[in-house]
TrEMBL record:
It is found in: Mitochondrion matrix. The gene is Sirt4. GO terms for biological process: DNA damage response; glutamine metabolic process; negative regulation of fatty acid oxidation; negative regulation of insulin secretion; negative regulation of pyruvate decarboxylation to acetyl-CoA; positive regulation of lipid biosynthetic process; regulation of glutamine family amino acid metabolic process; tricarboxylic acid metabolic process. Zn(2+) binds at C163, C166, C214, C217. It comes from Nannospalax galili. Belongs to the sirtuin family. Class II subfamily. Gene3D superfamilies: SIR2/SIRT2 'Small Domain (3.30.1600.10), TPP-binding domain (3.40.50.1220). It catalyses: N(6)-acetyl-L-lysyl-[protein] + NAD(+) + H2O = 2''-O-acetyl-ADP-D-ribose + nicotinamide + L-lysyl-[protein]; L-cysteinyl-[protein] + NAD(+) = S-(ADP-D-ribosyl)-L-cysteinyl-[protein] + nicotinamide + H(+); N(6)-[(R)-lipoyl]-L-lysyl-[protein] + NAD(+) + H2O = 2''-O-lipoyl-ADP-D-ribose + nicotinamide + L-lysyl-[protein]; N(6)-biotinyl-L-lysyl-[protein] + NAD(+) + H2O = 2''-O-biotinyl-ADP-D-ribose + nicotinamide + L-lysyl-[protein]. This is NAD-dependent protein lipoamidase sirtuin-4, mitochondrial. Its EC number is 2.3.1.-, 2.4.2.-, 2.3.1.286. Residues 31-308 form the Deacetylase sirtuin-type domain.
């Protein structure tokens, strides 16, 4: 469209993205729903009076956002892409330029993803008083879009931008307008979006991309998310630990629990002897700690559960 060419590591994936649409493409295969398992989860939820739910990338794959780790369909399995490292981003203006160029292209698609029935179910549970607290490892704002309020975004949110110098937070949508003003002739089309809104671009495209700095102090801008190699804010961790202490049960939805920032709360729940249920397609780090494990699509199973 603009004379730009895109480099992709797996061209056939991009072709199939446009042929089949995005929804469903990133969801791993799962066995049909087992009525007995549905009854067991229903019993787990009915017995729970202070339910803590922790969600991961698996809840958003049904909204068309790929995860990193799923067998065959996750980004690690499909491409040679790996997530950005925090120290590289902070140290190098070139790394930031590359990151923001890709993020700029991916933003219209990434920000347009909508909650799926699993997000809506959890939001509904909250409205009915069933959900004590919701902790998500996702940065896609889909729980917020579904109306969840008793929510901690453990790894931040791509819809906010943070100044690394003065700490000012601004909406990501505003930054998109600044990108457009600074790069009037720079247009491109997203060819494949990662969980963090990233896309694939050539070096030439990246090098001509102009990155704005903080409007208040001129400092470098970073999405308000925890990159790999960074740590979650300790106040946030304490806050979630307090919610775990108050809870009487824990349900994990769509997470393999490979990342310690989330896994530590499973360990805390286990220490407190809370019953733990896990809904995730594929094995998780905590299957042996769970009293109930379900290998189902979140968006198919959760809406079947009566939260009363
Ligand atoms: Zn600033």
């Amino acid at each position: 469209m603009s004379g730009l060419t895109f480099r992709s590591t797996k061209g056939h994936w991009i072709t199939s993205l446009s042929r089949h649409g995005s929804t469903g493409l990133f969801v791993p295969l799962s066995p049909p729903l087992d009525p007995e398992k549905i009854r067991e989860l229903q019993c787990f939820i009915t017995l729970s009076k202070k339910l803590l739910v922790m969600t991961g990338a698996g809840i958003s794959t049904e909204s068309g956002i790929p995860d990193y780790r799923s067998e065959r369909v996750g980004l690690y399995a499909r491409t040679d892409r790996r997530p950005i490292q925090h120290c590289d981003f902070v140290r190098s203006a070139q790394v930031r330029q590359r990151y923001w160029a890709r993020n700029f292209v991916g933003w219209p698609q990434f920000s347009s993803h909508q909650p799926n029935p699993a997000h809506w179910a959890l939001s509904n549970w909250e409205k009915l008083g069933k959900l004590h607290w919701l902790v998500t490892q996702n940065v896609d704002a889909l729980h917020t879009k579904a109306g969840s309020q008793r929510l901690t975004e453990l790894h931040g949110c791509m819809h906010r931008v943070l100044c690394l110098n003065c700490g000012e937070q601004t909406p990501r949508g505003m930054l998109q307008k600044r990108f457009q003003v600074l790069n009037p002739s720079w247009s491109a089309e997203a060819q494949g979006v990662a969980p963090d809104g990233d896309v694939f671009l050539t070096e030439e495209q990246v090098q001509s991309f102009q990155v704005p700095s903080c409007a208040r102090c001129g400092g470098p801008l970073k999405p308000d998310v925890v990159f790999f190699g960074d740590t979650v804010n300790p106040d946030k961790v304490d806050f979630v630990h307090r919610r775990v202490k108050e809870a009487d049960s824990l349900l994990v939805v769509g997470s393999s629990l490979q990342v310690y920032s989330g896994y530590r709360f499973i360990l805390a729940a286990q220490e407190k002897k809370l019953p733990i249920a896990i809904l995730n397609i594929g094995p998780t780090r905590s299957d042996d700690l769970a009293c109930l494990k379900l290998n189902s699509r979140c968006g198919e199973l959760l809406p079947l559960i009566d939260p009363h």
